[in-house]
Amino acid sequence: MSPLTFGQFLGVQLNEGFPLIWHIVLVEDRFGRAFGNALPRVNDNQFVLGKLIGSGGFGKVYRANMQSDASTVAVKFLRKAFWQNEDARLSFVREIGIASQIQHPGVIRYLGYGKSPHGGPYVICEWIDGCSLRDVVIPAGVL
Ligand SMILES: Nc1ncnc2c1ncn2[C@@H]1O[C@H](COP(=O)(O)OP(=O)(O)OP(=O)(O)O)[C@@H](O)[C@H]1O
Q1: What does the chain look like in DSSP terms, one character per residue?
Q2: Closest residue by CA, ligand 1 atom 30
Q3: Ligand 1 centroid, distance to 13 Cα (angstroms)
Q4: Residue 118 has pLDDT above 80, yes or no
Q5: Does the annotation flag 51 for ligand binding?
Q6: Most confident of 56-60, 91-95, 126-130
Q7: Which residues are ATP-binding (predicted)?
Q8: Whose CA is nearest to atom 29 of ligand 1?
Q9: Extents of the domains making up the chain
């Protein structure tokens, strides 16, 4: 049997139930390379969480520092409200699976993933010291 891809593996981590694992295998078949590249697993004791930076539809984003080299990263946790929601978990997995394969200076690099002691999945990505698009667009008056 071939090794689990990232999407499959995270599906196992997130769900621990057969139907979702099977669903993700099917999703991978359909989208081909969508989950092709594995990200490393990063345990929560490998970084120190800092302050909450922001939140989006699916998750909350914290600033954090890696224990290994003190580099600053962003850690995005799936909202607790979605832990039991299969569609939300799949969207989270899909977003990470696809985005982690894009290598472009304009796209955030995903560095790893894990599962918090409380059971929620998270993804670690490079820290971007920027501002929101709103801060750029509103002063300029145009998009
Ligand atoms: N890599 C990062 N570096 C620095 N800040 C970040 C990073 N990722 C997210 N943030 C901050 O956290 C906020 C929320 O990010 P998030 O990715 O959850 O937003 P979103 O794309 O609107 O969410 P979703 O995809 O869940 O709808 C962002 O608006 C930004 O301020």
Answers
A1: -PPP-HHHHHHHHHH-SHHHHHHHHHHHHHHGGGG-SPPPB--GGGEEEEEEEEE-SSEEEEEEEETTT--EEEEEEEPGGGTT-HHHHHHHHHHHHHHTT---TTSPPEEEEEE-TTS-EEEEEE------HHHHHHHHT--
A2: 54
A3: 23
A4: yes
A5: no
A6: 126-130
A7: 76
A8: 54
A9: 37-129
Give residue 18 CA to ligand 1 midpoint distance, Å.
31
Task: Report pTM.
Answer: 0.74
Ligand 1 pocket mutation pick from 76, 78, 87, 113 by most atoms within 8 angstroms of CB: 76
| Residue 93 pLDDT class (50, 70, 90 cuts) | confident
- Work out the percent of the chain whose per-residue pLDDT is above 90: 30
Q: ipTM of the assembly?
A: 0.94
CATH code of the domain made up of 37-129:
3.30.200.20
Is residue 53 in contact with ligand 1, taking CB distance under 6 Å?
yes
Top pLDDT among 101 and 128 is at 128
| Ligand 1 in reach of 61 Cβ (< 6 A) | yes
